[in-house]
Amino acid sequence: MEEAVINTSTPAVELEGITKRFPGVVANRDISLAVNQGHVHAIVGENGAGKSTLMKILYGMQRPDEGEIRVNGKAATFRSPGDAIAASIGMVHQHFMLADNLTVLENVVLGSEPRKGGIALDFGAARKKIIQISDSYGLGIDPDATVEDLGVGARQRVEILKVLYRGARILILDEPTAVLVPHEVEELFANLRVLVREGLTIIFISHKLDEVLSVADAITVIRRGTTVASVVPKDVTARQLAELMVGSELPSPETRESTVTDVVALSVRGLTVHSPEGRRIVDAVDFDIRKGEVLGIAGVEGNGQAELVEAIMGMRAADGEIRLGEHDISAWPTLRRREAGIGYIPEDRHRQGLLLEAPLWENRILGHQTRRPNVRGFWINRSGARKDTQRIVEEYDVRTPGIDVDASSLSGGNQQKLIIGREMSGNPVFLIASHPTRGVDVGAQAAIWDHLRAARAAGLAVLLISADLDELIGLSDTLKVILRGRIVADVNPLNVTPEQLGSAMTGAGEAA
Ligand SMILES: Nc1ncnc2c1ncn2[C@@H]1O[C@H](COP(=O)(O)OP(=O)(O)O)[C@@H](O)[C@H]1O
Ligand SMILES: [Mg+2]
């Protein structure tokens, strides 16, 4: 096979003025960027920024509405991935596309069969070529392994090999680290370094800034569909990159002025939850949360936090007393507790917070099915619920093409904003926020913190459970540590460090 002579000063890929519209969304707007030969070029942006769309355009899976693509200096029009492959571009998708029950060899050969005499597949030649590619790039792949026996990191290397096998010199990797554990990320980065050393060009998509800073030679930031900056890693910090991604100065979770009043909104006394075996999972917990106060609970996961929350919500049998304002609600069912003004951001938004297969406006009704604007008399008020969903989408900046799409089509951060908007409606007096920003990107995290702070300033009492110690320390007015179901320490969020809090959570210094 002959290789075209490529002038290394010409960018491998240039995109200019790329625009792509979908019904109701402009996914890419006037995007321009240049990727140098032999670089790892990172493209970063929040969920929904338009990264995958841009890459699908470069890989011929989608046609741009406007703009130009140049590969090695030559204008290119791709009608299909086949055209992109012919131009030496290959893509590894976010979700692997391998057939589990076939071998590596069969997977690699599928769709690009080496023909002998135009008929039989020449597996012998294919096997040789796979071994040669695997060896020269240090991929460590056995062509005869069955894909289902491979771990995630190895499958990913098979995908990369498959693309190299087809002759790619420009590799697109769409969020390749999303599925990897840390040591696999290191291995992947080592592979990428070998690939660029051998002259390949890599376009690496991510929203994890530390990774990008460690592996990339150049970085382009995309925000809301358009390119906002191209930088080199040595000139930026993770924080500056995050600010470019989000488009504003990054807020910190700090709350500064106290808004704590002396009116107790929720009071818990002797709250105890037993396991089926009779062990105390939550053990005689006492606390008060006042209006305008955030009470944070720090603890290693599995120390009773989830059960404490479920007991307060009435989802789990418990002994002891729970008072909401002047009412003893200990014996009330969950729905009545919600109606009395308890909002609930659950730990697992997929299992407890949303119906993924239902449209946003139906999700607005969940847990609020007895209250206005969702009902009129005995009937579900469809137009009331729809109108209020639209309000939440606007007020909480839920990025979605509309309220009729299924919740599953939103990114995690946007799903969470929808839940928070729903739980804040009807003016709750008390809110349980369980890991409110877990798994959401920095922009959504900042927005969620803003909403919590604003609600607290308006007099909401909040119980905050989080594994993010900066979030706990920053947002809490009062901070307690839970260990084996018991509150074992009160710490001052104004002067505790995450390290001190972490050691309190593991019981270090417990004897003191
Ligand atoms: N095939 C499609 N049809 C309609 N909207 C789409 C389609 N693909 C992507 N979008 C929308 O385009 C925007 C950008 O999505 P995407 O490129 O997947 O972002 P990213 O990869 O940065 O998370 C989102 O609002 C998404 O909902
Ligand atoms: Mg994507």
UniProtKB/TrEMBL annotation:
Occurrences of domain ABC transporter (ranges): 13-249, 266-509
GO MF entries: ATP binding
Keywords linked to the UniProt accession: ATP-binding, Nucleotide-binding, Repeat, Sugar transport, Transport
Xref: InterPro entries: AAA+_ATPase, ABC_carbohydrate_import_ATPase, ABC_transporter-like_ATP-bd, ABC_transporter-like_CS, P-loop_NTPase
Pfam families: ABC_tran (PF00005)
Xref: PANTHER family: CARBOHYDRATE TRANSPORT ATP-BINDING PROTEIN MG119-RELATED, GALACTOFURANOSE TRANSPORTER ATP-BINDING PROTEIN YTFR
Protein name as catalogued: Simple sugar transport system ATP-binding protein
